[in-house]
Every structure is written in structure tokens, then in C-alpha cells.
Amino acid sequence: MKFRLSRKKWQFVQYLGLFCCCCLLVISCGSPQTSTSTGSSSNPGTNVSSSDRISVGSVHKPRTLDPADGYEVAINDIITSLGDRLYTYVGDTDQLEPQLATELPEVSDDGLNYTIPLRQGVTFHDGEPFNAAAMAFSLKRFSENGGKPSALLSDVMESVEATGEYELTIKLKNPFAPFPSVLAFPGMAAVSPKAYEIGEGKFKPNEFVGTGPYKLVSFNPNLVKVDVFDEYWGEKPPNQGIDFQFLSSAANLYNSFTTGAVDIAYRDLNVDQILSLKQKAEAQGYQVLEKPSSRLDYLVLNVNQKPLDQVEVRQAIASMIDRSLIIDRVYRGQAEPAYSIIPSTFETNQPVFKEPYGDGNIEKTKELLTKAGFSKEKPFEFEIWYASDNPERQQIVTLLKEYAAQNLDGLMQVKPQPVESTTLFSNVPKGIYPSYLVAWFPDFGDADNYISPFFSCTKGSAETGCQEGASQSQGFFYYSEKMNQLIEAERKEQDPKARKEIFADIQELIAQDVPLVPLLQKNEFAFAQKPLKNIEFNPVIGLSFWEVNKEA
Length: 552
What we know:
552 residues, alpha+beta, D-Maltodextrin-Binding Protein, domain 2, 10-stranded mixed β-sheet, 4-stranded antiparallel β-sheet, 24 strands
């Protein structure tokens, strides 16, 4: 789950340092996270941190900076500032361009061998030279150290070696067409062989020695400071560094932005706070960045549980969902409807749930439930499980409960089932839950990342459902031999046009069998103070901090 998928001279004068500390103390006494604090109406440009540094505020704290173990969105934001990968994304698209590579790979006829020419004249933050041996070391370490995202590479890569001082050759276990996109995952950044080692669990959570436009100055749970790397091979950032500040709550983040203590408020604001900042934007000079993200929220349906083993019941659920109602009531317009598991930010998206099911198609829902044998006297009791610490999902399920009660004449009774998130996800592969709400963040910018991790199945049958594989581990238990064949075909196919056609077939099959119901794509938001320029979102890796310019 790229997760993408996340260029993250520390030196404040003493007065400013004391001032910021005082600000944080005042902010810490602010309103609780669930409320929207009004903050200060003063000119935001008067308090902003430093004239030549960018201050970024968010809530979720990074667990580690080791690229071989970092799998959270908050970590990726920093890693992409500190490290370079073989490939990255063009502007605000999911199209690849070389970064430490100089060209896209040359792929062998059998789709197994990738030969990649590398950039010369690149230096690591510790002064070590970058070459093919260093890149091979970095990828081996990512694959073999057993970090959280290691399977992204270990499952597909057979070997990697330097076949020249600036040539890398990677051999795959099986053909995998989106492999170059995998190499753009933030954790596959080049790291200095002098600073790291290969071995199970050998991580350095408080360090980062890469080749990126910034170098790490300090790391603690509340603040990560990075300076511009003077020896960077590429274009230098138009600022002197980034201060990633991690605040205790969304309320504190809101206050820090409105008082000018941070330049950019990113990711973790709640719905009401976002609305408040949008309303204040013109008067206060705030910049509002809003864009559909590649995150997708969906409802999992366990096809092995009765009565969800009946396709008519699953189709009835798909017909009952009113996305516009959810977006209006829960997200206050801060999301886009999703009619496929592949988000609309991808060219391969086909809105396959829109025409056959629509939104809030009550008559079709009633017809399908009646066909499945339900009545007012014998209603369909539909349990929807969700993480109890997620207020938005609680609101969604409550809304669906009320909607069904008001419109379905007793044919369906939605039963909300909150559960602690750790318990929820540990139980999902066991098949305990008939359904649950969840969101998916991509690991890399290819549609395969929304298909294989959900629907592939290595052991199962139409009668038993999926017994081993992604579909079982995700709680679908959906087995389709046709789906397995389509997934194998798209992973082998190198021609983009042909792959797009295969993805169209995959999406049509999902809409027919309904092992899930896509709900929405929540919009990505960032708020920036007026002096900042060149702020750009990428749908996979988020904000490009290394491009942000702060005018005096």
C-alpha cells in the first residue's frame, strides 16, 4: 500500500526557537480532536517558522526512517524527501520517469530479466559514490531484511546484480509487467552500503543515508529535520530544508496552521477543520490544495458466509449503497464516488458499478432481496464490521442502517459492529466477519496493486472459496478461475493497450460477482500559507516537498 503510495540546515535563531516552543505549549491546551478550533484570525504570514525553511505539520508520527521497514504513509512522505529510487512519477500523474536510472528498463523477451542503466556522478549523503553495486545492495537489503514492505520485492525478484559499474540486472521469478512501478516505491531508495547491512531485522530506524535532495539532521517522535544536500546530483530544492512537525491532535494541527506556526498542514485534519480552512482561505490568504487521491474506501463481502454466498444478496447490497448520500452526510463533499476498485486517477479505471447498480437503487435492491428469499417477516440481517476508532466509518454504517430502515420496507436490517482495529484486522483472514469497511492506499502506481492483493487465490475452488492467497487474507474468500487467469495475463502483458483491455475484463467480473462494493475516493487536502509556491500533489507519493519555494 503505497504506498505512494508517501524531499523531506536546521538552525533557528534562539528567539524563534523559544517562540515556537511557547506556541506549542499554548496549542497543546487547545480543543479536543473531534472539534474544530477557530484559531487566530491574525495574518498567517507574520508567524511562519523561518524565511528559508518549510515547516510541515501533520499528526501521525513516523515509526522508523529505515526504508526497508517503513510502510506507513507518514514515513513515505519523509523518505521521498531523503532518498532517490530508480524511478519516480511525472508531476501529478502515475506515469514513470527515470530518477537514479537513466532510462526505463530493457526487458527480455520472456519478461524475466530487466536491464537498467544507471546515473553517474551521484553521491550518498556520507560521501560514498553511488553505482550499480550500491543499488543492488539496497534492493537486496529491502528484500532480505524482512521489513514490513519486503514482500513487494521478495515475492517477485529472483536476483539482482551489478552487470557493469553503472548497469543493474534484475531477474524475476515470474513475468511481472508493473515491475518498474514497484521500483518507484519509496522504500526502494538507494542507501549507502557503508551505513547499512543486510540481515534479518537489521534496521536503523533513526537514520537515513541516501542520495536525495535532503539529508537527515535529526529525528525524534515529534520532529524530523532535514537540510538541503549540497552535493545533490539534480536540481537543488528552492528552500534550505524541511521541518516535519508531528502534533498531538488534529486540533493542534489546525491551530498551528492558523497561527502561522507551520507552513503546510497536511493529511490529518478532520472534515470540519477542512471546511473551516476552506471558508477562511480567501480572507486569510491560505492556499487550498484539493485533489482526488489514490486511496479507495470499499466494503468487503465474505462470499463464504451465508447469505452472502448468494450473488443476488451481494448485488442487492451494491444497489442499496448511495455514494452521494455518504459523501454529503459523512464527508461534507470532500470525496468522489468510486464505481470500481481501480480509482479514477488511473487510466485503466472503468466505472463498472455505476450502470448496473447505480446509487440507492431501492427498487432493484428490493427485487434482488426478494429473489434471494427475504421478506419483511424474514429480513436480511446485514452485519457490517468496522474499526471502532474510526468515526467516519462509524458514521457510514449508522447512515446505512438508517437508510435501509427508511427505504427497504423491512427487507434488510443493517447491524453496526464496531471492533478494535487490531482485533479487526487479525480476525479478517479467519473468515469471522461477513463484511467490513476498509480503505486501501497503493504501494505503487499500477492498477495491479488494486487487483492482485485482493482477488488472487493460490488454493481454492468455486465450492470451497479461496483457502490460501490474497483473497483469503483480505477476507473476501472469493475464488474465480477466470479471475486468476486474468490476473496472470495482466501481470505478464507488456503492451499497455492490451493490459488496459484485460483490466477492463477484470473490473467487469468484479461488478458481476460483487466480492466487494467500491464506495468512494476521499480527496487529498493540504493547506499552505500564502508565501509558498510550486506545491504539487502526486496521486501515488503525495506532496513534492523538494519543489516548494517560500517567497519572502
